[in-house]
User: Fold this.
Amino acid sequence: MKPLRIHTGRLDLIPATLEILKADRNDRRELARLLDAAVPGSWPPPLLDDATITEFIRMAAGNADPLFISWYWVRDDPAEGGRMLVGSGGIASSPAP
Assistant:
């Protein structure tokens, strides 16, 4: 079953599957293919460093955090040049105090 995507008039929210997360870390072309969007040269943003994406992969692979979910944000606007990866974000459990 294909993961649920949320689509508005100009924005797609695409769940960060394990396959997408691995592509984000290792293969920009594959990431573009999986998101069906151009990946800008400035990708990844500063807070999505190698340690962060590796932790996201760990959480997604082992279902280590039942509250973990991350989304990729793709602008889908023909007037602005088509589909372009513009961001990502998500939530996870808070670390234990």
User: Anything to note?
Assistant: The longest helix spans residues 50-62. Residues 2 and 15 are 10 Å apart (CA to CA). The mean pLDDT is 89. Residues 6-83 form one domain.
